Amino acid sequence: MLAMTPPMGYNTWNTFGTNINAQLIKETADAMVDQGLLDAGYKYLVIDDCWSERQRDPKTDKIIPDHNKFPNGMNDVSDYVHSKGLKFGMYSCAGVRTCADYPGSFDHEFLDARTFAEYGCDFLKYDFCFKPATIDGPLLYKRMGMALKASGREILFSACNWGSDNVGTWIRSAGAHMYRSTGDIFDNFESMKNIAKSQIQNYCYSAPGCFNDMDMLTCGMYGKGNVGSTGSNDTDYKTEFVLWCLFGSPLMIGCDVRNMTPATKALLTNKELIRLNQDPECRGVIDVSAWDDNKKVFFRHLADGEYAIGFFNFGENEATIPFYTFHAGLVAGCGCGFEMKELFTGEETGLVKDYMNPVVGAHDCKIYRAKVVRF
Ligand code: GLA
């Protein structure tokens, strides 16, 4: 079975957009192994939009790889990716064209799914541009869900309709394993903050087999790439990664993994954060913030009677961020309290009975793993 915990991998779009080719994919595969990303759990290497010729093959009607970008065909690349122990991902679209105006899979779903299987594909991201207005969007995801199952190969289905049609309520039933729930991320703090905040109430729809995907990570991009804008600094990227891990979103890296800074590599391979993301119970977070919209506290039940508590300062100045344990269900006078350990610093809080108020820097966060103890 696929996707029993949030899928992890890498996707070309954020950094490279249309500038993709066989050489880049092979170098990325090498880097994923050499930099320890595969060992950390990132196993899908996904080629996003812009990989094909502008038109289908006139004889076979198949989507065919761009001859200049992939001169030896797609199997040359997928074989290489597989030889490194990675899984190979591709991209298509539910509409007649992809978002960057290449052939889409509308009315070609079964042919295309078989073609992707022939190309050695293990993961399909399925976008939503150029959908005929008269056609029901959910039906198109049901079609591709069936087509992938009939393709003869096990292919993870990564839906990408940007949250349209209340996607969380039906996409699991269409056979998808993960689904984008928002518009595209940009490489700045506002973008990733707004995406995370918009999904707090939607994590009840995320569970083993099908996960709410808050989009590819921008961590480590520093403004270089295809989803432009100002870029962020290491504090912002730390907060982004902690949010994605705490919420249980799929983790799809978007920076150039061939040239990661030591800080980016350490963040993306942080074992405690990935363990949090991959927690087998896959529960959503509870918003236990006190009152200020820039001071957020999220609480999550984990496996084995543990909990995660994240404190996020979305404001522009250092601040104290209050947490009342009764918001998480721990009432005063119950004789129990939390014992907590911060995952970056190892700091231990001692017993927290009813209230704590940690200091958190601007844009920064603190993330604790906790147990309830009797006192
Ligand atoms: C849409 C998707 C992005 C990316 C581009 C490619 O905008 O949401 O993630 O796949 O298309 O054109």
Short account of what is shown:
The chain is 25% helix and 22% strand. Helix 2 (22-34) runs parallel beside helix 4 (73-83) and helix 8 packs parallel to helix 9 (262-268). It has 10 helices and 18 strands.
Please provide a written account of the structure.
The protein has 375 residues and is of the alpha/beta class. It is 25% helix and 22% strand. It has 10 helices and 18 strands. The chain has helices at residues 13-16, 22-34, 37-40, 73-83, 109-118, 137-149, 189-198, 234-247, 262-268, 271-277, and strands at residues 8-11, 44-46, 87-93, 123-127, 156-160, 178-180, 211-213, 251-253, 285-287, 295-301, 306-313, 319-320, 323-324, 336-342, 348-352, 355-356, 359-360, 365-374. The strands form 4 sheets. The chain has an 8-stranded parallel sheet. It has a 6-stranded antiparallel sheet with strand order 9-10-11-18-14-15, covered by helices on one side. Helix 2 runs parallel beside helix 4 and helix 8 runs parallel beside helix 10 (271-277). It is elongated, with a radius of gyration of 21 Å. The model has no long low-confidence stretch (mean pLDDT 97). The protein binds alpha-D-galactopyranose. Alpha-D-galactopyranose (GLA) is lined by residues 13, 48-49, 98-100, 127, 160, 162, 184.
